[in-house]
Amino acid sequence: xxxxxxxxxLNTLANLPVFTSAQRARLLRRAGVASGAGTQFEQGFxxxxxxxxxxxxxxxxxxxxxxxxxxxxTIGNGSGLAEGARxxxxxxxxxxxxxxxxxxxxxxxxxxxxxxxxxxxGATVLSGLHVAxxxxxxxxxxxxxxxxxxxxxxxxxxxxxxxxxxxFANTSEPTP
Length: 176
Hints:
This protein is mainly beta. It has one domain (3-163): Hexapeptide repeat proteins (UDP N-Acetylglucosamine Acyltransferase, domain 1), CATH 2.160.10. 12% of the residues lie in helices and 32% in strands. The chain is built from 2 helices and 19 strands. The protein has helices spanning 3-14, 21-30, and strands at 33-35, 40-41, 46-48, 53-55, 60-61, 66-68, 73-75, 80-81, 86-87, 90-94, 103-108, 111-113, 118-119, 124-125, 130-131, 136-137, 142-143, 151-154, 159-163. The chain has a 7-stranded mixed sheet. A 5-stranded parallel sheet has the order 1-4-7-12-15. A 5-stranded parallel sheet has the order 3-6-9-14-17. Strand 10 (90-94) and strand 11 (103-108) form a beta hairpin. Helix 1 packs antiparallel against helix 2. The longest helix is centred in the first third of the chain and has 12 residues, at 3-14. The protein is globular.
């Protein structure tokens, strides 16, 4: 079975509700998805395209999250995609009005997601971007530019709206 066909079949199998996150990870590894220890894949996670996907350790991929691998995609340690989040690694030109189609051929453009990045529900990271370490991309945002470290980005197009706090309260312990 050819590599793209194999990837498609294993990707489809991994989305069946009978598999656990660990079983999905094993199926996706066989499909060529390199992921580190502790990474979790919820049902509906999909990867498409011929290029390489590198995933660090302790990452999380929510229900129906999607990664387009027309170009290489690298995701750092401790990062995650919420439900329905997307990473797109390709683009295309708009052709002149006298062309048969409106869009030209696909142009792959690598995407890099840093360490400890959270991409919110329904957010989209477009091709060719670098998301710096410890960033949050808000739900529904469309990221069209590279980010600076430690920022919270929201909106369409996404813009930096605040800084990620350096510390978070430990909510597992009761307050006195």
